[in-house]
Design brief:
This protein has two domains: 2-299, NAD(P)-binding Rossmann-like Domain (Rossmann fold); 331-470, Alpha-D-Glucose-1,6-Bisphosphate, Chain A, domain 4. The protein has 14 helices and 20 strands. The protein has helices at residues 11-22, 39-42, 83-98, 120-132, 153-164, 183-192, 214-225, 239-249, 254-264, 275-279, 286-298, 342-350, 362-374, 444-470; strands spanning 2-5, 26-31, 47-51, 68-71, 105-111, 138-144, 147-148, 167-171, 177-178, 181-182, 202-206, 212-213, 230-234, 331-338, 395-396, 399-405, 410-415, 421-430, 433-442, 483-484. The protein has a seven-stranded parallel beta sheet with strand order 3-2-1-4-5-6-11, with helices on both faces. Strand 2, helix 2 and strand 3 form a beta-alpha-beta unit. Residues 476-485 have low confidence and may be disordered. It holds the Pfam family Epimerase. Residues 3-85 form the NAD-dependent epimerase/dehydratase domain.
Amino acid sequence: MRILITGTTGYIAKRLALQLLEDKHKLVCCVRDLNRIPDEIEDHPLCSFIKVDFLKPEDAEIPKDIDTAYYLIHSMATSSDDFEDLEQQCAQNFKDLVEPTNCKQVLFLSGIVNDASLSKHLKSRLQVENTLKSENYALTTFRAGIIVGSGSASFEIIRDIVEKLPFMITPKWLNTKTQPLAVRDVLNFLAGGLGKTELYNNSYDIFGPEVLTYKEMLLQFAEVRGLKRYIVTLPVLTPKLSSYWLYFVTSTSFKLAAALVDSMKVEVIGKPSNINNIIGIEPMDYKTAVDLAFQKIEQNAVISSWKDAVSSGRFKDQLSKHIELPKFGCFKDVKQRKVTDEEFTLNKIWAIGGRNGWYSFNGLWKLRGYMDKLFGGVGLRRGRTSDTYLEAGDALDFWRVLYANKEEKRLLLFAEMRLPGEAWLEFKIVDDQLHQRAVFRPKGIWGRLYWYAVLPFHAFVFNGMINALVKNENENTPEVPSRGQ
């Protein structure tokens, strides 16, 4: 079967693509930026890729001979205030492009919408579902609640709260009931619904076997981790205060925190159906889902993370627009060192940030992250999805990976911290020399003042970092003079 997948770089679609390839399906993957094709599927013989922006579909060409399509585009974490209109526009453009093809079925992952008063986010999901309905193809909608899996937004937020706070004074919405579902079960529903005519033009709630409050989810999460936690809920925290509480305690952006608080006030209880029997699935309980997620984390085998979505930070453009470093109107800090062990240096570069730190003056990096968070930035809490692997589009603390190619020996990062300008950090090995370049393009007088304010710190922070990248503990590596302007 030839299948069209949207949202290829997203949390669910990336995992689903791998599962469908194991089942020997041919995939046509839609990406907004051809520089962000996931490495795991880039060279797969059953995969092809087309560049499509469903908000600007003028030049898009969808192959006529597709049999099925997955609509997995989601705008919950977008920085735009009119995300409802954007989601509607996206769904309508997708429908207009798919209707002329041979597509027989579209599968859509939505949210459970049974509560009498839906959040803004869930209302939008329901509107998208109605927009996708067509006389040219059959629509199958799976409506899920909280998705539990390594790298999911809900899992990482709960993880942050539980592991950082032994005692919690929390908002009253922690008593809201929900039915969490493991990401493995979500993928099995999506893959299992493929081509089943009995599911055509129907919607199904998919959910785990337990009804839990968010408070119970936190406490059960703590049990799995072997932690003792105490939670007191108060009715006095307003939605805005609750959003700030989530923002400062967890790695989420403020926009996503606000959207989550709005949704967490709504009960997410599914309506029973025969979908489990049709697909042949018995969803796992919450504790099992959490335990399996940590197995993936401990094996450093997390396939996708919500933090790697571009919407999790400030970067909004296509990566290709920023891959070439600017030459004019910029300040630069350029350093070089001789590389004596290329494999060691490349591995150190590819492991930078996250739990591994920045190899030099980590306290100052953390301070910069705290300051960024205080002023509404992403801070350092996003970390990185894998401790040793990077690809274009990944989040890396308060940076975004623009380019990562070990064969070319080049890693390029773009700053997503709050800055009066734009900043890049590049590592590149050429002729046994490691070139480390920090480039800053200031915006106005504040940008120039900022550069000169942080310049004194560059001497020891960036020197220490490049020294650590080229120097094995048992080696003495000669330095090449640094230059800056």
